[in-house]
Amino acid sequence: MFNNLTDRFKVAFKNLTGKGRLTEANIREAMAEIRTALLDADVNYNVVKKFVADVSEECLGEQVLNSITPGQQAIKVVSDKLTTLLGENSVGLTLTSKPSIIMLCGLHGSGKTTTSAKLALYLKDKLKRRPMLVGCDLYRPAAIDQIEILAKELDIPVFTERDTKNVTLVAQHAVSYANIHNIDTIILDTAGRLQIDNDLVQELVTIKNAVKPDEIILVGDAALGQEAVSVATHFDQALGITGIILTKLDGDARGGAALSMHQVTGKPIKFVTVGERAIDLEPFHPDRMASRILGMGDVISLVEKAQEQYEDEEAKKLEERLRKNTFGFDDFLTQIEKIRKMGGLMSLLKFIPGMGDLPMDGLDEKEFNRIEGIINSMTPKERRNPEIIGASRRQRIAKGAGVNQNELNQLLKQFNQMRGMMAKMGSGGFGFGDLMGGGGLGNMFGGGPAGMPQPHMNMPYQPRQSSSSTSRAANAAAKKKQKQARKQNRKKK
Where are the domains of the chain? Predict the structure, then answer.
Protein backbone atom coordinates (compact mmCIF):
# COMPACT_ATOMS: atom_id res chain seq x y z
CA MET A 1 0.00 0.00 0.00
CA PHE A 2 2.73 2.47 0.97
CA ASN A 3 5.15 1.67 -1.88
CA ASN A 4 4.73 5.01 -3.67
CA LEU A 5 4.93 6.95 -0.41
CA THR A 6 8.10 5.07 0.54
CA ASP A 7 9.72 5.91 -2.80
CA ARG A 8 8.93 9.61 -2.40
CA PHE A 9 10.35 9.68 1.13
CA LYS A 10 13.56 8.11 -0.18
CA VAL A 11 13.92 10.94 -2.71
CA ALA A 12 13.50 13.51 0.05
CA PHE A 13 16.02 11.72 2.29
CA LYS A 14 18.52 11.52 -0.55
CA ASN A 15 18.42 15.30 -0.82
CA LEU A 16 19.12 15.58 2.90
CA THR A 17 21.80 12.93 3.36
CA GLY A 18 23.66 14.08 0.26
CA LYS A 19 24.42 17.40 1.92
CA GLY A 20 27.44 17.93 4.12
CA ARG A 21 25.59 20.70 5.89
CA LEU A 22 21.89 21.36 6.23
CA THR A 23 20.51 24.78 5.48
CA GLU A 24 17.07 26.31 5.55
CA ALA A 25 16.97 26.05 1.75
CA ASN A 26 17.66 22.30 1.41
CA ILE A 27 15.40 21.45 4.35
CA ARG A 28 12.63 23.45 2.67
CA GLU A 29 13.25 21.51 -0.56
CA ALA A 30 13.01 18.15 1.24
CA MET A 31 9.87 19.21 3.09
CA ALA A 32 8.23 20.20 -0.19
CA GLU A 33 8.86 16.68 -1.50
CA ILE A 34 7.42 15.14 1.70
CA ARG A 35 4.37 17.43 1.56
CA THR A 36 3.65 16.43 -2.03
CA ALA A 37 4.13 12.74 -1.19
CA LEU A 38 1.66 12.88 1.70
CA LEU A 39 -0.95 14.80 -0.27
CA ASP A 40 -0.62 12.34 -3.16
CA ALA A 41 -1.23 9.56 -0.65
CA ASP A 42 -4.59 11.16 0.21
CA VAL A 43 -3.54 12.26 3.70
CA ASN A 44 -5.81 14.97 5.08
CA TYR A 45 -4.57 18.46 4.16
CA ASN A 46 -4.61 19.81 7.74
CA VAL A 47 -2.71 16.75 8.95
CA VAL A 48 -0.06 17.26 6.26
CA LYS A 49 0.26 20.94 7.05
CA LYS A 50 0.86 20.33 10.76
CA PHE A 51 3.23 17.41 10.13
CA VAL A 52 5.46 19.36 7.73
CA ALA A 53 5.51 22.40 10.03
CA ASP A 54 6.53 20.29 13.05
CA VAL A 55 9.27 18.46 11.12
CA SER A 56 10.62 21.67 9.58
CA GLU A 57 10.79 23.43 12.94
CA GLU A 58 12.72 20.59 14.59
CA CYS A 59 15.04 20.07 11.61
CA LEU A 60 16.04 23.74 11.78
CA GLY A 61 16.89 23.44 15.46
CA GLU A 62 20.47 23.64 16.70
CA GLN A 63 20.55 19.97 17.73
CA VAL A 64 20.12 18.89 14.10
CA LEU A 65 22.02 21.63 12.25
CA ASN A 66 25.08 21.34 14.51
CA SER A 67 25.09 17.54 14.52
CA ILE A 68 28.01 15.58 13.05
CA THR A 69 25.50 13.82 10.74
CA PRO A 70 22.75 16.40 10.21
CA GLY A 71 21.13 14.43 7.37
CA GLN A 72 20.71 11.34 9.55
CA GLN A 73 19.40 13.47 12.41
CA ALA A 74 16.80 15.00 10.10
CA ILE A 75 15.65 11.51 9.03
CA LYS A 76 15.28 10.58 12.70
CA VAL A 77 13.10 13.64 13.22
CA VAL A 78 10.85 12.56 10.32
CA SER A 79 10.66 9.02 11.72
CA ASP A 80 9.74 10.23 15.20
CA LYS A 81 7.08 12.63 13.93
CA LEU A 82 5.61 9.98 11.63
CA THR A 83 5.38 7.58 14.58
CA THR A 84 3.58 10.27 16.59
CA LEU A 85 1.24 10.87 13.65
CA LEU A 86 0.33 7.17 13.61
CA GLY A 87 -0.25 6.98 17.35
CA GLU A 88 3.15 6.68 19.04
CA ASN A 89 2.33 3.57 21.10
CA SER A 90 0.57 0.29 20.42
CA VAL A 91 -2.76 0.14 22.28
CA GLY A 92 -4.48 -3.15 23.05
CA LEU A 93 -8.08 -3.98 23.88
CA THR A 94 -9.64 -3.01 27.22
CA LEU A 95 -11.84 -5.93 28.27
CA THR A 96 -12.97 -5.65 31.88
CA SER A 97 -16.67 -6.54 31.92
CA LYS A 98 -18.12 -10.04 32.23
CA PRO A 99 -18.82 -10.72 29.48
CA SER A 100 -16.68 -8.12 27.74
CA ILE A 101 -18.46 -6.55 24.78
CA ILE A 102 -16.84 -5.26 21.57
CA MET A 103 -19.11 -3.36 19.18
CA LEU A 104 -17.86 -2.97 15.62
CA CYS A 105 -19.24 -0.13 13.49
CA GLY A 106 -18.48 1.36 10.08
CA LEU A 107 -19.74 2.00 6.59
CA HIS A 108 -21.13 -0.72 4.34
CA GLY A 109 -18.28 -2.48 2.52
CA SER A 110 -15.56 -1.70 5.05
CA GLY A 111 -15.24 -5.38 5.93
CA LYS A 112 -16.93 -5.46 9.35
CA THR A 113 -18.24 -9.03 9.19
CA THR A 114 -14.98 -10.63 8.05
CA THR A 115 -13.08 -8.43 10.50
CA SER A 116 -15.32 -9.55 13.36
CA ALA A 117 -14.41 -13.17 12.54
CA LYS A 118 -10.69 -12.33 12.38
CA LEU A 119 -10.92 -10.52 15.71
CA ALA A 120 -12.71 -13.49 17.28
CA LEU A 121 -9.95 -15.83 16.09
CA TYR A 122 -7.30 -13.45 17.45
CA LEU A 123 -9.03 -13.38 20.85
CA LYS A 124 -9.27 -17.16 20.87
CA ASP A 125 -5.74 -18.00 19.70
CA LYS A 126 -3.64 -15.11 21.01
CA LEU A 127 -5.46 -13.96 24.14
CA LYS A 128 -6.89 -17.38 25.06
CA ARG A 129 -10.39 -15.98 25.53
CA ARG A 130 -13.76 -17.57 24.76
CA PRO A 131 -15.32 -15.24 22.16
CA MET A 132 -18.73 -15.36 20.51
CA LEU A 133 -19.87 -13.62 17.33
CA VAL A 134 -23.24 -11.87 17.29
CA GLY A 135 -25.09 -11.09 14.06
CA CYS A 136 -26.49 -7.59 14.56
CA ASP A 137 -26.78 -6.76 10.87
CA LEU A 138 -30.45 -7.43 10.19
CA TYR A 139 -30.65 -5.50 6.93
CA ARG A 140 -27.99 -6.72 4.50
CA PRO A 141 -29.12 -9.80 2.58
CA ALA A 142 -27.28 -12.94 3.71
CA ALA A 143 -25.38 -11.06 6.45
CA ILE A 144 -26.48 -13.60 9.07
CA ASP A 145 -25.62 -16.49 6.72
CA GLN A 146 -22.15 -15.03 6.25
CA ILE A 147 -21.37 -14.67 9.95
CA GLU A 148 -22.68 -18.17 10.69
CA ILE A 149 -20.49 -19.68 7.96
CA LEU A 150 -17.40 -17.80 9.19
CA ALA A 151 -18.07 -18.87 12.78
CA LYS A 152 -18.42 -22.52 11.75
CA GLU A 153 -15.18 -22.43 9.74
CA LEU A 154 -13.26 -21.02 12.73
CA ASP A 155 -15.03 -23.18 15.33
CA ILE A 156 -16.30 -20.11 17.21
CA PRO A 157 -19.79 -19.83 18.81
CA VAL A 158 -22.25 -17.53 17.07
CA PHE A 159 -25.53 -15.98 18.22
CA THR A 160 -28.20 -14.96 15.70
CA GLU A 161 -31.94 -14.36 15.72
CA ARG A 162 -33.59 -14.47 12.31
CA ASP A 163 -37.16 -13.75 13.42
CA THR A 164 -36.68 -10.28 14.88
CA LYS A 165 -35.99 -6.85 13.46
CA ASN A 166 -35.07 -5.31 16.82
CA VAL A 167 -31.28 -5.26 16.84
CA THR A 168 -31.09 -3.98 20.43
CA LEU A 169 -32.98 -7.05 21.64
CA VAL A 170 -30.59 -9.29 19.71
CA ALA A 171 -27.63 -7.68 21.48
CA GLN A 172 -29.30 -8.00 24.92
CA HIS A 173 -30.25 -11.64 24.32
CA ALA A 174 -26.66 -12.35 23.24
CA VAL A 175 -25.33 -10.98 26.53
CA SER A 176 -27.74 -13.22 28.48
CA TYR A 177 -26.71 -16.24 26.38
CA ALA A 178 -23.02 -15.49 27.00
CA ASN A 179 -23.55 -15.39 30.77
CA ILE A 180 -25.24 -18.80 30.73
CA HIS A 181 -22.73 -20.48 28.38
CA ASN A 182 -19.47 -19.25 29.91
CA ILE A 183 -18.61 -16.88 27.04
CA ASP A 184 -16.23 -14.14 28.22
CA THR A 185 -16.19 -11.90 25.10
CA ILE A 186 -18.89 -11.08 22.56
CA ILE A 187 -18.37 -9.23 19.28
CA LEU A 188 -21.34 -7.32 17.88
CA ASP A 189 -21.26 -7.16 14.06
CA THR A 190 -23.53 -4.16 13.43
CA ALA A 191 -25.07 -3.00 10.15
CA GLY A 192 -23.43 -0.46 7.89
CA ARG A 193 -24.71 2.08 5.38
CA LEU A 194 -23.35 3.47 2.16
CA GLN A 195 -23.12 6.78 3.99
CA ILE A 196 -23.71 8.01 7.52
CA ASP A 197 -27.39 8.80 8.23
CA ASN A 198 -29.52 9.53 11.29
CA ASP A 199 -31.15 6.08 11.34
CA LEU A 200 -27.78 4.33 11.41
CA VAL A 201 -26.40 6.57 14.14
CA GLN A 202 -29.52 6.29 16.32
CA GLU A 203 -29.54 2.50 16.06
CA LEU A 204 -25.90 2.30 17.17
CA VAL A 205 -26.49 4.74 20.04
CA THR A 206 -29.44 2.60 21.22
CA ILE A 207 -27.27 -0.55 21.19
CA LYS A 208 -24.51 1.28 23.06
CA ASN A 209 -26.87 2.49 25.79
CA ALA A 210 -28.48 -0.94 26.14
CA VAL A 211 -25.38 -3.16 26.51
CA LYS A 212 -22.63 -0.63 27.39
CA PRO A 213 -19.75 -2.14 25.36
CA ASP A 214 -16.17 -2.09 26.65
CA GLU A 215 -14.89 -1.25 23.17
CA ILE A 216 -16.57 0.61 20.30
CA ILE A 217 -14.28 0.07 17.34
CA LEU A 218 -14.61 1.75 13.96
CA VAL A 219 -13.76 -0.56 11.07
CA GLY A 220 -12.34 1.69 8.36
CA ASP A 221 -11.32 0.86 4.82
CA ALA A 222 -7.70 1.98 4.31
CA ALA A 223 -8.63 2.98 0.76
CA LEU A 224 -11.06 5.70 1.93
CA GLY A 225 -8.47 8.49 1.63
CA GLN A 226 -9.80 11.96 2.41
CA GLU A 227 -13.27 10.58 3.23
CA ALA A 228 -11.74 8.61 6.12
CA VAL A 229 -11.47 11.80 8.19
CA SER A 230 -15.15 12.63 7.79
CA VAL A 231 -16.27 9.07 8.54
CA ALA A 232 -14.06 8.76 11.63
CA THR A 233 -15.17 12.15 12.95
CA HIS A 234 -18.89 11.38 12.56
CA PHE A 235 -18.71 8.00 14.27
CA ASP A 236 -16.54 9.37 17.07
CA GLN A 237 -18.88 12.28 17.75
CA ALA A 238 -21.94 10.02 17.77
CA LEU A 239 -20.56 7.04 19.71
CA GLY A 240 -17.26 8.00 21.30
CA ILE A 241 -15.26 5.27 19.58
CA THR A 242 -12.42 3.70 21.57
CA GLY A 243 -10.28 2.60 18.65
CA ILE A 244 -9.94 1.83 14.94
CA ILE A 245 -9.32 -1.28 12.86
CA LEU A 246 -7.93 -0.45 9.42
CA THR A 247 -8.85 -3.03 6.78
CA LYS A 248 -7.33 -3.89 3.40
CA LEU A 249 -3.86 -2.62 4.29
CA ASP A 250 -2.52 -5.17 1.79
CA GLY A 251 -4.29 -3.43 -1.10
CA ASP A 252 -2.95 -0.95 -3.63
CA ALA A 253 -4.69 2.14 -2.21
CA ARG A 254 -2.54 5.14 -1.30
CA GLY A 255 -2.84 4.74 2.47
CA GLY A 256 -3.91 8.23 3.49
CA ALA A 257 -6.49 6.86 5.93
CA ALA A 258 -3.81 5.25 8.07
CA LEU A 259 -2.01 8.58 8.41
CA SER A 260 -5.13 10.68 9.05
CA MET A 261 -7.61 8.83 11.26
CA HIS A 262 -5.66 8.79 14.50
CA GLN A 263 -4.55 12.40 14.19
CA VAL A 264 -8.09 13.64 13.56
CA THR A 265 -9.95 11.56 16.16
CA GLY A 266 -7.23 11.13 18.75
CA LYS A 267 -8.27 7.47 18.97
CA PRO A 268 -5.70 4.70 18.47
CA ILE A 269 -5.49 2.35 15.52
CA LYS A 270 -5.62 -0.97 17.38
CA PHE A 271 -5.47 -3.52 14.56
CA VAL A 272 -4.91 -3.77 10.81
CA THR A 273 -5.95 -6.48 8.38
CA VAL A 274 -3.23 -7.48 5.92
CA GLY A 275 -4.91 -10.17 3.85
CA GLU A 276 -8.04 -12.20 3.24
CA ARG A 277 -7.22 -15.14 5.51
CA ALA A 278 -8.73 -15.39 8.99
CA ILE A 279 -5.26 -15.08 10.56
CA ASP A 280 -4.47 -11.85 8.70
CA LEU A 281 -5.28 -9.51 11.61
CA GLU A 282 -2.32 -7.87 13.33
CA PRO A 283 -1.95 -5.51 16.29
CA PHE A 284 -0.94 -2.06 15.05
CA HIS A 285 2.50 -0.80 16.07
CA PRO A 286 2.98 2.87 15.04
CA ASP A 287 6.79 2.78 15.30
CA ARG A 288 7.07 -0.36 13.16
CA MET A 289 4.66 1.00 10.55
CA ALA A 290 6.61 4.27 10.39
CA SER A 291 9.81 2.29 9.86
CA ARG A 292 8.22 0.33 7.00
CA ILE A 293 6.84 3.49 5.36
CA LEU A 294 10.31 5.04 5.47
CA GLY A 295 11.82 1.94 3.83
CA MET A 296 13.66 0.82 6.97
CA GLY A 297 12.00 -2.58 7.29
CA ASP A 298 10.41 -4.16 10.35
CA VAL A 299 12.64 -6.92 11.66
CA ILE A 300 10.83 -7.16 15.01
CA SER A 301 7.53 -8.10 13.36
CA LEU A 302 9.36 -10.59 11.11
CA VAL A 303 10.93 -12.27 14.15
CA GLU A 304 7.55 -12.42 15.87
CA LYS A 305 6.00 -14.05 12.80
CA ALA A 306 8.78 -16.64 12.76
CA GLN A 307 8.47 -17.33 16.50
CA GLU A 308 4.77 -18.10 16.03
CA GLN A 309 5.69 -20.88 13.60
CA TYR A 310 8.55 -22.51 15.52
CA GLU A 311 8.52 -24.30 18.85
CA ASP A 312 11.82 -24.13 20.77
CA GLU A 313 12.48 -27.85 20.43
CA GLU A 314 11.68 -27.82 16.71
CA ALA A 315 14.00 -24.85 16.15
CA LYS A 316 16.85 -26.63 17.96
CA LYS A 317 16.42 -29.76 15.82
CA LEU A 318 16.39 -27.70 12.64
CA GLU A 319 19.51 -25.82 13.72
CA GLU A 320 21.25 -29.13 14.41
CA ARG A 321 20.36 -30.48 10.94
CA LEU A 322 21.61 -27.27 9.33
CA ARG A 323 24.90 -27.50 11.19
CA LYS A 324 25.43 -31.13 10.24
CA ASN A 325 24.33 -30.48 6.65
CA THR A 326 21.61 -33.14 6.93
CA PHE A 327 18.81 -30.76 5.93
CA GLY A 328 16.65 -32.81 3.53
CA PHE A 329 13.71 -32.29 1.21
CA ASP A 330 11.22 -33.20 3.96
CA ASP A 331 12.62 -30.30 5.99
CA PHE A 332 12.38 -28.11 2.92
CA LEU A 333 8.67 -28.94 2.45
CA THR A 334 8.08 -28.02 6.10
CA GLN A 335 9.76 -24.65 5.59
CA ILE A 336 7.65 -23.98 2.46
CA GLU A 337 4.50 -24.51 4.53
CA LYS A 338 5.74 -22.22 7.31
CA ILE A 339 6.59 -19.48 4.78
CA ARG A 340 3.04 -19.78 3.43
CA LYS A 341 1.58 -19.42 6.92
CA MET A 342 3.68 -16.29 7.49
CA GLY A 343 2.20 -14.66 4.40
CA GLY A 344 4.48 -15.86 1.60
CA LEU A 345 8.04 -15.11 0.56
CA MET A 346 7.32 -11.75 -1.09
CA SER A 347 5.39 -10.61 1.98
CA LEU A 348 8.27 -11.51 4.31
CA LEU A 349 10.86 -9.69 2.20
CA LYS A 350 9.07 -6.39 2.86
CA PHE A 351 10.07 -6.68 6.52
CA ILE A 352 13.79 -6.85 5.69
CA PRO A 353 15.57 -3.45 5.67
CA GLY A 354 16.75 -2.59 2.16
CA MET A 355 15.09 -5.54 0.44
CA GLY A 356 12.53 -3.22 -1.12
CA ASP A 357 15.28 -1.74 -3.30
CA LEU A 358 16.30 -5.09 -4.79
CA PRO A 359 14.83 -6.40 -8.07
CA MET A 360 12.31 -9.09 -7.14
CA ASP A 361 10.84 -9.68 -10.57
CA GLY A 362 12.52 -13.09 -10.79
CA LEU A 363 10.87 -14.42 -7.63
CA ASP A 364 7.85 -16.53 -8.43
CA GLU A 365 6.02 -18.06 -5.46
CA LYS A 366 4.07 -20.34 -7.83
CA GLU A 367 7.26 -22.38 -8.09
CA PHE A 368 6.46 -23.65 -4.59
CA ASN A 369 3.76 -25.85 -6.13
CA ARG A 370 5.99 -27.12 -8.93
CA ILE A 371 8.86 -27.90 -6.59
CA GLU A 372 6.49 -29.68 -4.19
CA GLY A 373 5.35 -31.88 -7.08
CA ILE A 374 8.94 -32.93 -7.83
CA ILE A 375 9.74 -33.60 -4.16
CA ASN A 376 6.56 -35.66 -3.70
CA SER A 377 7.71 -37.89 -6.57
CA MET A 378 10.74 -38.90 -4.49
CA THR A 379 10.76 -41.80 -2.05
CA PRO A 380 11.05 -41.00 1.69
CA LYS A 381 14.65 -42.21 1.60
CA GLU A 382 15.48 -39.92 -1.34
CA ARG A 383 13.93 -36.93 0.40
CA ARG A 384 16.00 -37.59 3.50
CA ASN A 385 19.21 -38.25 1.54
CA PRO A 386 19.20 -36.32 -1.77
CA GLU A 387 22.80 -37.36 -2.46
CA ILE A 388 21.66 -40.92 -3.34
CA ILE A 389 19.64 -39.67 -6.31
CA GLY A 390 21.59 -41.03 -9.27
CA ALA A 391 20.80 -41.22 -12.98
CA SER A 392 18.12 -43.94 -12.83
CA ARG A 393 16.41 -42.34 -9.85
CA ARG A 394 16.42 -38.96 -11.60
CA GLN A 395 14.77 -40.48 -14.63
CA ARG A 396 12.03 -42.03 -12.48
CA ILE A 397 11.42 -38.86 -10.39
CA ALA A 398 11.25 -36.59 -13.46
CA LYS A 399 8.76 -38.91 -15.15
CA GLY A 400 6.60 -39.12 -12.01
CA ALA A 401 6.55 -35.32 -11.59
CA GLY A 402 5.85 -34.65 -15.26
CA VAL A 403 8.99 -32.52 -15.78
CA ASN A 404 12.06 -32.97 -17.92
CA GLN A 405 15.22 -34.27 -16.29
CA ASN A 406 17.09 -31.02 -16.73
CA GLU A 407 14.57 -29.25 -14.48
CA LEU A 408 15.11 -31.90 -11.80
CA ASN A 409 18.89 -31.50 -12.17
CA GLN A 410 18.56 -27.75 -11.64
CA LEU A 411 16.47 -28.26 -8.50
CA LEU A 412 18.94 -30.76 -7.03
CA LYS A 413 21.91 -28.52 -7.79
CA GLN A 414 20.31 -25.43 -6.28
CA PHE A 415 19.08 -27.35 -3.26
CA ASN A 416 22.63 -28.53 -2.59
CA GLN A 417 23.90 -24.95 -2.93
CA MET A 418 21.23 -23.68 -0.55
CA ARG A 419 21.89 -26.48 1.93
CA GLY A 420 25.58 -25.61 1.94
CA MET A 421 24.82 -21.95 2.57
CA MET A 422 22.40 -22.81 5.34
CA ALA A 423 25.09 -24.92 6.99
CA LYS A 424 27.43 -21.91 6.91
CA MET A 425 24.66 -19.70 8.29
CA GLY A 426 24.17 -22.19 11.09
CA SER A 427 27.83 -21.81 12.04
CA GLY A 428 27.58 -18.00 11.93
CA GLY A 429 29.50 -17.55 8.69
CA PHE A 430 26.77 -16.17 6.45
CA GLY A 431 23.85 -13.77 6.64
CA PHE A 432 20.45 -13.39 5.03
CA GLY A 433 21.96 -11.62 2.04
CA ASP A 434 24.08 -14.66 1.25
CA LEU A 435 21.06 -16.94 1.40
CA MET A 436 19.20 -14.67 -1.01
CA GLY A 437 22.20 -14.53 -3.34
CA GLY A 438 23.77 -17.15 -5.62
CA GLY A 439 22.10 -20.50 -5.17
CA GLY A 440 19.86 -19.26 -2.33
CA LEU A 441 16.12 -18.77 -1.94
CA GLY A 442 16.09 -16.11 -4.63
CA ASN A 443 17.14 -18.71 -7.18
CA MET A 444 15.04 -21.53 -5.80
CA PHE A 445 11.91 -19.52 -6.65
CA GLY A 446 12.92 -17.47 -9.68
CA GLY A 447 11.12 -18.23 -12.95
CA GLY A 448 13.10 -19.57 -15.89
CA PRO A 449 12.24 -20.31 -19.53
CA ALA A 450 10.78 -23.69 -18.64
CA GLY A 451 9.05 -22.35 -15.57
CA MET A 452 11.71 -23.68 -13.22
CA PRO A 453 14.30 -21.71 -11.23
CA GLN A 454 17.54 -20.75 -12.92
CA PRO A 455 21.01 -20.62 -11.33
CA HIS A 456 22.43 -17.30 -10.13
CA MET A 457 23.39 -14.73 -12.78
CA ASN A 458 21.53 -16.83 -15.40
CA MET A 459 24.49 -19.17 -15.77
CA PRO A 460 23.66 -22.23 -17.88
CA TYR A 461 23.23 -25.47 -16.00
CA GLN A 462 26.32 -27.70 -16.07
CA PRO A 463 25.83 -31.30 -14.91
CA ARG A 464 28.16 -32.49 -12.20
CA GLN A 465 30.76 -34.98 -13.36
CA SER A 466 30.56 -38.28 -11.53
CA SER A 467 33.67 -39.67 -9.87
CA SER A 468 33.93 -42.39 -12.54
CA SER A 469 33.83 -39.89 -15.42
CA THR A 470 36.44 -37.79 -13.65
CA SER A 471 38.70 -40.84 -13.31
CA ARG A 472 38.34 -41.74 -17.01
CA ALA A 473 39.29 -38.19 -17.98
CA ALA A 474 42.34 -38.29 -15.71
CA ASN A 475 43.49 -41.68 -17.11
CA ALA A 476 43.13 -40.45 -20.69
CA ALA A 477 45.21 -37.38 -19.92
CA ALA A 478 47.91 -39.51 -18.27
CA LYS A 479 48.10 -41.92 -21.24
CA LYS A 480 48.36 -39.01 -23.67
CA LYS A 481 51.22 -37.55 -21.65
CA GLN A 482 53.05 -40.94 -21.59
CA LYS A 483 52.62 -41.31 -25.36
CA GLN A 484 54.12 -37.85 -25.96
CA ALA A 485 57.05 -38.70 -23.68
CA ARG A 486 57.81 -41.97 -25.58
CA LYS A 487 57.64 -40.10 -28.87
CA GLN A 488 60.20 -37.50 -27.67
CA ASN A 489 62.51 -40.29 -26.43
CA ARG A 490 62.48 -42.00 -29.84
CA LYS A 491 63.41 -38.71 -31.51
CA LYS A 492 66.39 -38.30 -29.17
CA LYS A 493 67.63 -41.81 -29.99
Answer: 3-86, 100-296, 305-458
